[in-house]
Amino acid sequence: MSFLNTLSSIVGSDHVLTGEKALPFLSDWRGRYKGNAIAIVRPSSVQSIINIVRLCKQYNIAIVPQGGNTGLCGGSIPNNNSKDSIILSSTRLNQIREIDLSNNSIVVEAGCTLQKLQDISLEKNRYFPLSLASEGTCTIGGNLATNAGGTQVLRYGNIRELTLGIEVVSPDGYVIDLLRALRKDNTGYSLRDLYIGSEGTLGIITAAALKLFPICDKKWAILVSLSSIENAIEFLMETRCVFDASLTAFELISQFCLNLSLNFLNDKKYRLDTDFIDHPWFVLLEISAIGDIREVDDFMSNRIKIFLEKCIVLGYIDDAIISFDNLHFASLWHLRESIPLAEKDFGKGIKHDISLPVSVIPSFLSDMEKSLRLHFNGVQIVVFGHLGDGNLHYNVFKSIDQSEESLLSLQWQIYDLVHSKVHDFGGSISAEHGIGQLKVNELQKYKNAGALDIMRRLKKSVDPDNMMNPGKVLDI
Amino acid sequence: MSFLNTLSSIVGSDHVLTGEKALPFLSDWRGRYKGNAIAIVRPSSVQSIINIVRLCKQYNIAIVPQGGNTGLCGGSIPNNNSKDSIILSSTRLNQIREIDLSNNSIVVEAGCTLQKLQDISLEKNRYFPLSLASEGTCTIGGNLATNAGGTQVLRYGNIRELTLGIEVVSPDGYVIDLLRALRKDNTGYSLRDLYIGSEGTLGIITAAALKLFPICDKKWAILVSLSSIENAIEFLMETRCVFDASLTAFELISQFCLNLSLNFLNDKKYRLDTDFIDHPWFVLLEISAIGDIREVDDFMSNRIKIFLEKCIVLGYIDDAIISFDNLHFASLWHLRESIPLAEKDFGKGIKHDISLPVSVIPSFLSDMEKSLRLHFNGVQIVVFGHLGDGNLHYNVFKSIDQSEESLLSLQWQIYDLVHSKVHDFGGSISAEHGIGQLKVNELQKYKNAGALDIMRRLKKSVDPDNMMNPGKVLDI
């Protein structure tokens, strides 16, 4: 039997896609990456995946795991031409295997979407905190492969910190069962953490045991205006010290960025006073509380007001808007969440997903802007992101008299400038999007040589035939 | 120059210990493990460690890293006779390299004691949450090598979750610098997490960047009496849902265990009413809050009282004692913390450091007790531990008419019975103490075969000459 026929005998011919039907899987959602594959295979069971992996091993065909295909670095699109590959799409492997309310844990299969997981948790009166723009489409497997972050990391951590255990199919086609839903388990090397963030290059994550949390009964969104980025850092420190775990988000927005969003939304319900807008920086923070709503509402609303007044007196912030009901809460968040779409409307830019120690962000921003303006006169800089955990989206757009093509042709020069400065300031060139195929060379440049050596050894020992997502993360 | 002379030229002859001076390092603090080593070497710099590792590689001599030597599984005592070894003691490599308050992070060297780190954090108005009985002696390097847990895991996680970055000297004698103090960094495999918990078998952790937290202004200790273990689980779920991150500890104590502690302390200030003591189970929980003391005190004290009254009405708990001042807080905690010493006073027992999904703990305890009584009639069972994260200390003591030697001779049979049941219930045979040399065979029995295979491959790829702590964790 041929390779394709055997694949069909494993998953059914309806789930081996070639030709036209394969196209949507062969490029990413933004159309930035295109690849080739013998077929797209859509298994719905772990046993099928085992059989597929063994078959691929026999035929020396590589496997590119793909979840919701919402990645930003081309991690789930084939790019290696030294070997034929298939795309293994996880979207049919999407069952909730178990919910254990007393243990506050849930076991889900890799192809389950983040939204489905969030919804089922809520139905059971629990909260799964990972929250991303792509949550309707992205899968838990993809979230794990890239160690997804998002807006709630400040309080709940990345998905790594939300994960108790995982199940993996190895490149040899056997199951590595690490699914025990335990909060403490020191039995040998933490393979769970090795696979999380390995972007499908060491094996295929097929399921995960995840933590569930109590639902917060009440949330406040607060938009504050600030005179400087230094003040934003002081304000963050103060807020953390006063609200601790009740501080669930702390998002920075530059003035240029806020205006982009306001213009994009173009609706009077989002209107802000001119005096308020006339500031270089804004922070959207979220405070959450649990408990009897009226009791907590009175107590926390009062604490929030007193705290913000103190921060105005101390000069950390200039003004603050506190959400007064659920609709207002949603509209303040909508201002922040619309930034990526507003940016897209504004044009194509060169985007950086960076993180820095929070303390150096003011110096970095000032140095970086000077340096960019020196080398690329007139470019427009859009800064926003998760200041609470040091993660900035630092995006560069064309100058007014420049063409978009001309800016985009400078992509690698601008990357060079930004990433080398991030590196010098002790930061990371990939905070939450991963390496994929986009940043393989960048990683070689900036990652510690000792660490790269160990990474290569690990890859070779676990996947000696380079079967798993070749050409991603490492240049092998 | 001979091996020992070269060692002396690296660290100074005062810091190469042999003969009498070496003895304290060659056995653990409880005297359960004894080993041999050519010398104890005490470097005070990373460069010295690099030189030592290169020298050992040249002479094919193994390295056993040792911190405070407070481990419970013999992980830092040499046990491999196939190769000569040195003990590399980290206690002189103990500097605080950097405190970054705005980033809420601190960089410390591996030999720094946990107590020193806690104290320095407090001086800077920050909190480092790891808390262990051995904190005055144990080192951060040892804590990281074993992924230490303790009483605050429920809220803050194990030391893995408290770590931003680490620095490691590889078995080849180069530095793997992963010290960036970032909360989001997805640049390749998480080597940090591979080294954390690897018990010195993959390299020597020399420093770590750790998270700091705000200090809680007010804490309440609450001792409650319960009629059943099922009630304790219901009570835990209810408490988590109502207090979320303010619940900072949830410790289970059996009646036998509480009596041991009360008898050991033997002081009227610890006296409890007979009615209160007349229960099979007790929980000591801790609620913490941040904010203006008086304001928070009133609000939370009131919430706690209302909550406990509700739990009494619901039948989850029978009675509760809330700490009314700092002294009372300390004395309630002292009841819990004295258990290990009270146990020691009681005699030698067979101890298990296990974890389970919280939901199965009632069935496990009931099955386990039946099974133990069936096979080892009359043994006394002492149960306590961190119920909030499923981690129990499950200890078996001799029956009244049995000799201690007779019980201890049954150690492996009792291990077998307990560990196999833990395994069947989806638990872990080592929750927070690690594998060391004690549980190498147990790990072979219970760890998933696929996981063991990957672990062996990793060890061989990173440390092909088996230089680093041979015979620990894995049987190589």
Automatic annotation (TrEMBL), chains A, B:
Belongs to the FAD-binding oxidoreductase/transferase type 4 family. Its cofactor is FAD. PROSITE patterns: FAD_PCMH (PS51387). InterPro entries: FAD-bd_oxidored_4_C, FAD-bd_PCMH, FAD-bd_PCMH-like_sf, FAD-bd_PCMH_sub1, FAD-bd_PCMH_sub2, FAD-linked_Oxase-like_C, FAD-oxidored/transferase_4, Oxid_FAD_bind_N. Pfam families: FAD-oxidase_C, FAD_binding_4. Keywords: FAD, Flavoprotein. Gene3D superfamilies: 3.30.465.10, 3.30.70.2190, 3.30.70.2740, Uridine Diphospho-n-acetylenolpyruvylglucosamine Reductase, domain 2, Vanillyl-alcohol Oxidase, Chain A, domain 4. GO terms for biological process: respiratory electron transport chain. Residues 33-215 form the FAD-binding PCMH-type domain. This is FAD-binding PCMH-type domain-containing protein. One of its GO terms (molecular function) is catalytic activity. The keyword Flavoprotein applies. It comes from Candidatus Kinetoplastidibacterium crithidiae TCC036E.
